Amino acid sequence: MIRLTVRELRVAPAQHVATLIVTTIGAIFATIVIEADRVLGSQSAAGGFLAHGFVRLLLDVLGSVFLFVAIFVSCIVIANTFGIVMAARSRRIALLRLLGAEGRALRRGVTLEGAIVGAAGGVLGTSIGLAVVAALVAVLTAQHTFAPAPSPLATPLLVAPTVIAVLSTAGAAWFGSRRVSAVTPLDAVGVGQEASLEEVRRRRRPWLVSGCLAVGAVLLVAGVVIGARSPFGLFVAAPGGALSFLGFVLGSGTFLPPVLHLVGRSFGRSVPAALSRGNAIRHPERSARSAISLVIGVTLVVMFAVAAACFGTQAGAVAATAGPQEAASDAAFVTLVLGVLGVLIGFSLAIAAVGLVNSLSLSVLQRRREIGLLRAVGMNRRQVRLMVLFESLQLTLAGSVCGIVLGVLYGWAAALTALSSDRHIGGYFLPTIPLPLVLSVVGLSAALAVLASLAPTRRANAVSPVVALAVE
Amino acid sequence: MLEVPVVRARGLSKVFGGGDSEVHALRDVSVDIEGRRLTAIMGPSGSGKSTLMHLLAGLDRPSAGAVLYDDVDITALDDRRLTALRRTEIGFVFQAFNLVPTLTVLENVLLPFELGGTKPSGEHREWILERAGDLGLTPLLGRRPHQLSGGQQQRVAIARALAIRPRLIFADEPTGNLDSRTGLEVLMMLESATREHDQAVVLVTHDPAAAAHADRVLFISDGIVVHDVGRTDAATLSDMVLELAGAR
């Protein structure tokens, strides 16, 4: 079985490119967080940078929360990617089941694949992260922002990103490969069918979804309440947010189709629009898989943007009531936080884009025969292009709408938890919604839809009607 | 010459769907599949011949009835034991060749052992290599499936099925994707497996020319075995098919 795994990695490494990119990005991020904390620590010891004790504490808290979020997101995206890889491989898995492989053994093999890819991504990401930090420190020292403090780059803690990458990728691969157990040997004979919406609803263990949502929401609210006294409320609110979000992700097979349908209705009544609308609803699992990575990305972007906007608004309040020195220190801090946010936004968008392109390509690949049939009965290439584009748009727009709503909620909760204990702000406040950002998220996701549909469209239009109608 | 049955089906029924859309794919079918013989299951599309094969191979569970391997009713086995049964007792050859694209020819042939975490003994391995040689695979053992022609791929699938020395081999339209000459070769190979290696083979097909290679032909129509005949030539089989089509 180990030989099969190694063979899979050696012969068809392309299927794990998405996972490798995601783990690498995650490891880069973890490395930067670890290094940033260390470097800033030595800087505040060496010079007057960040003397504000409260800000130091908050930075440490935020650093761990960011890291936690990044790992969580990578896990979800990797699990999705493995789900997609398994879907693409399901015929082969069915064959192995037919020939007498046990589902469990196959899953163990897939988990091992995940661990190996995770190790590669971890090492690669750590190296890149170290290089980035070293370059940044050099630049900041040259600009006299940093005191020239000697700080050796390597610390034993740097093993952590790789260890985390291996563990989380293996875990995500195990979780993402759960459909391996669902593949029956009959699928090899071509009799197996994809689950319908009703089956998904029945199978989805609704208690798990509602349990995650309920417990998560309670923790989130509790965190906000504790946050009124101490920023440590983040340690309660963050797992709460993650848990409720996990609930949403797990239940996406039922939550997303209605949104997809609503978005699809706005495309009008043309044939390609009607077909793409049907496609998105027909395989709720596949559609949810495609949209969820974008939901994750957009939620994060909006969450941090809303949190940052709240920081900005409240910093004004601090400046008005506190002394100018304190306000300046806080302003420096906010700039720093915004910088970190920008980095995280970049990471999560990259992760989301990888996920989307991946799943759209698969969607077209799995529908080769259907597309061939449509071409045979007279659909022209332009209509095929429109159909794929509409489907892509439907996924990205539905994803970004969900993401924006969730992001505003989570961002607001985070800002409340982190800031409402500051004596200059005093109490709760309404969320500041950065409208330009929300609009550009919608615009960007539309652009992403167009971009992501290019390759699949080319592939769809390359399908000859004759080939597609033949027995495979 | 009466052969001992390797698999016995008793009162097999299979119903798909429920309520108004209920479809009876098989109705109370009882057959014995005998060793050292090529048994063909014929019938028009939708007759239930594939369903019968799936049930005999433990790929699907019947609505009623039993499938007996010796005295074990496999319809009562759990997935784990069914999996082991497929790995050790049943060989499969399909229309769509069904090879693992990332493995070489030899690795594909030895795949059932790999999956079971075992290795064939030295003598057994030699026997497998000999069979691969008989099938003309010796020069191809290091290649990948995509480097082979359709006929060659199907020969790899036959070698894989033979390798475990199974109780019986199921061949589901094995010539469906092949030109007639290559298809004929494949049929002769299945035939010689029964003669030279005492292998029981079940051939599922709708092609009278293919079924003419069988020692025994079962006709299935609307879920019932309507004819059970010995070796018959293609023309007669063809007439029987047409007659069935007319009767429907």
UniProtKB/TrEMBL annotation, chain A:
Q: Which residues form the signal peptide?
A: none
InterPro entries according to UniProt? ABC3_permease_C, Macrolide_Exporter_MacB
Q: Which domain of life is it from?
A: Bacteria
Q: How does it sit in the membrane?
A: Multi-pass membrane protein
Q: Which residues cross the membrane?
A: 12-34, 65-88, 114-141, 153-175, 207-228, 234-260, 291-320, 332-365, 386-413, 433-455
Every ABC3 transporter permease C-terminal domain range: 65-182, 343-462
Report keywords, A-Z: Cell membrane, Membrane, Transmembrane, Transmembrane helix
The answer to whether UniProt assigns keyword Cell membrane to this entry is yes
Q: Where in the cell is it found?
A: Cell membrane
Q: What is the similarity comment for this entry?
A: Belongs to the ABC-4 integral membrane protein family.
Q: What is this protein called?
A: ABC3 transporter permease C-terminal domain-containing protein
Automatic annotation (TrEMBL), chain B:
Q: Mind telling me which InterPro entries this protein's record contains? A: AAA+_ATPase, ABC_transporter-like_ATP-bd, ABC_transporter-like_CS, ABC_transpr_LolD-like, MacB-like_ATP-bd, P-loop_NTPase
Question: Can the keyword Nucleotide-binding be found in this entry's annotation?
Answer: yes
- Classification of source organism: Bacteria, Bacillati, Actinomycetota, Actinomycetes, Micrococcales
Q: Which UniProt keywords apply?
A: ATP-binding, Nucleotide-binding, Transport
Q: Which Pfam families match?
A: ABC_tran (PF00005)
* Name listed for the protein in its UniProt record: ABC transporter ATP-binding protein
Cited PROSITE patterns: ABC_TRANSPORTER_1 (PS00211), ABC_TRANSPORTER_2 (PS50893)
| GO MF annotation terms | ATP binding
Name the source organism. Answer: Amnibacterium soli
Q: Which residues form the ABC transporter domain?
A: 7-247
